[in-house]
């Protein structure tokens, strides 16, 4: 045991990133491609799970920036394209985490969309799956659900929400 602790101390002093562990939904998750990266941060404050989404193109021309209260703005070259209002819900009985989103597009035409996503943590805490369960009144089940996966990049979150962070 002493040897293991000494090895971990040496590795952390070498500037290596911390090990990823299963912290449930809490942590920072990422997915991306050659054009952009999408980051999901989930923190616990006073027993409540809070969700924040960020998406940026690598050239920084396109962004979706959200605060911890679920207010988001989507912009391209500084011009507002859409706003989002995201409500996060955690069911303590089932252990399900979901988000209900109201998307209001302002460009090219004003349109409003509503959808619900459900999240699951898999692979020993390393993968966050996000499944759309309802969009505009249409319900999706099983493999018919639109889905995306995020890879855990940190057990904690940058710029955590104010309050009793856990």
Describe the structure.
With 166 residues, the chain is mostly beta strands. It has a single domain (2-154), classed as Lipocalin. 7% of the residues lie in helices and 55% in strands. The protein has a ten-stranded antiparallel barrel with strand order 1-2-3-4-5-6-7-8-9-11. A hairpin with a 2-residue loop joins β2 and β3. Residues 1-13 have low confidence and may be disordered.
Which spans have pLDDT < 50 for at least 5 consecutive residues? 1-13
Cα end-to-end separation: 27 Å
Question: What proportion strand?
Answer: over 45%
**Number of E-type strands:** 11
Order of helices and strands: HEEEEEEEEEEE
| Alpha-carbon Rg, integer | 18 Å
The CATH class is Mainly Beta
Estimated structural class = mainly beta
What sort of overall outline do the alpha carbons produce when their principal axes are compared?
A: globular
The overall number of domains is: 1
For the sheet with most strands, the description reads: 10 strands, antiparallel, barrel
For the biggest β-sheet, the strand order reads: 1-2-3-4-5-6-7-8-9-11
CATH fold topology: Lipocalin
Oligomeric grouping of the chains: single chain
Total helical segments: 1
Helix content: under 10%
Overall mean pLDDT stands at 88
CATH architecture: Beta Barrel
Topology (SSEs and partners):
Layout: H1 2-13, E1 27-32, E2 36-45, E3 48-57, E4 62-66, E5 71-76, E6 79-91, E7 96-105, E8 111-122, E9 127-135, E10 138-139, E11 147-154
Antiparallel strand pairs: 1-2, 1-11, 2-3, 3-4, 4-5, 5-6, 6-7, 7-8, 8-9, 9-10, 9-11
Attribute tags:
single chain; 7% helix; 166 residues; ten-stranded antiparallel barrel; mainly beta; 1 helix
